[in-house]
Amino acid sequence: MDEINWENYDFGDNYSYSTDLPSIIPDSSPCLPESLNINKYVVLVIYVLVFVLSLLGNLLVILVILSSRASRSVTDIYLLNLAIADLLFAFSLPIWATSKVKGWVFGTPLCKLVSLLKEVNFYSGILLLACISVDRYLAIVHATRTLTQKRHWVKFICLAIWGLSLVLSVPVVLFRKAFHPPYSSPVCYEDMGVNTTKWRMVMRVLPQTFGFLLPLLVMLFCYGLTLRTLFEAHMGQKHRAMRVIFAVVLVFLLCWLPYNLVLVSDTLMRAHVIEETCTRRIHIGRALDATEILGFLHSCLNPLIYAFIGQKFRHGLLRILANHGLISKEFLSKEARPSFIGSSSGNTSTTL
C-alpha cells in the first residue's frame, strides 16, 4: 500500500465522495470529521438484503428474456443488458457492506474493481435507458422500423454503451487506492496528490455531463414527445404498455438523481462557485453518504417492477416454472396470455 504524505496533502481539494474519509486532516482545516448518523450494522443489513434481492431478481429477468427468443424485442435487449449491469454490481455489494463495518480491508486491486463496477453500473444504466427512450420515440412518434428491425445494430449499440461506460469510469478507477488516513478506518479513496482541484473538476464535470446530463436530456425529450403522441392519438393500449418502461426510468431517477445532484453541489463548492464552509462541507458529506445508499438500492428494484407491472414477465416466469414441473400446466393455462405492447413496428414490443 502506497504511503501518503499527509503533511503536504491538501485535503480540501482532494476530498472524494463515497469513501467515508474524514473531510479534512487536523493540520489543514478547522473542520472536524463527521459522518451520517446511521448505524453501520443497519447499513450492513440493507446491503445484504439488496444483494440477495438483486441476485435472484436479475437472474430471473435474464432467464425470462433469454427464454423468450421468438418474441424478444429491441427494448428487451436493452433491458437484458440493464439486468446484467445490475447483476455485476450486485456481486460487489458484500464487499461494500463489509467495508461499512470494518473499513476498507481489501487492498487497492479490489478497491479499483468494485469502484469500476459501481461506475459502470450507473453509466450503462442511464445510457441504456436513453437508448430505450429513443427506440420508443422512433416506434411511436415516427412509426419507423429503421432501427428497430435491425438487430445487429442494437448489438453494436449495446457494445458501444459498455465501452463508453468503461471510458467514463476510467478516471475514478485510475486514482482509487486503499490506505489508512489519520483518525479514521481504512478507506478506498481517490489519491490524486497535491493541489489537484482542476483535475478533480475534470473528473467530475466530464462524466456528469456525458454520462448523466446528456442522457437525461435525451430521455426527457423522447418521452415528452412520446407521451404527447400517445395522448393525442388516444392509443390506450400503447399507453398501458409503456407503464413498465416509465416505471423503470422513474425508479432509476429517484434512486440516482439525488446522489448526482448532491455531487454537483459538492463540485460547485470545490470550484468555489458557491461558498465553501465547514458546515456546508459536513452537510454535503452526509448527503452523499445517504444518497449513495439509495443509489445502491436501485440494483434490486427493476425485477420488482417487472413482477408487479409487467404482465408478460409474469407469464414468461410462470411458463418457465411450468416447463420445469414447479407449477401445473393447468395453473398456467388459467393465466390469460397478455398481449404484446402495440407498436408501429412488430419488433418493438417488449417482453416485460
UniProtKB/TrEMBL annotation:
Q: Which family does it belong to?
A: Belongs to the G-protein coupled receptor 1 family.
Residue ranges of the TM segments: 41-66, 78-97, 122-141, 153-175, 210-231, 243-259
Pfam families with a match to the protein in the record: 7tm_1
For this record, the Gene Ontology CC terms, alphabetical, are: external side of plasma membrane
Q: Does the keyword Metal-binding apply?
A: no
Its subunit composition reads: Interacts with IL8. Interacts with GNAI2.
Originating gene? LOC103110797
Subcellular location per the Swiss-Prot or TrEMBL entry: Cell membrane
Q: Which GO terms describe its biological process?
A: calcium-mediated signaling; immune response; neutrophil chemotaxis; positive regulation of cytosolic calcium ion concentration
Keywords of the record, alphabetical order, are: Cell membrane, Chemotaxis, Disulfide bond, G-protein coupled receptor, Glycoprotein, Membrane, Phosphoprotein, Receptor, Transducer, Transmembrane, Transmembrane helix
Instruction: Provide the protein name.
Output: C-X-C chemokine receptor type 2
**Purpose of the protein:** Receptor for interleukin-8 which is a powerful neutrophil chemotactic factor. Binding of IL-8 to the receptor causes activation of neutrophils. This response is mediated via a G-protein that activates a phosphatidylinositol-calcium second messenger system. Binds to IL-8 with high affinity. Also binds with high affinity to CXCL3, GRO/MGSA and NAP-2.
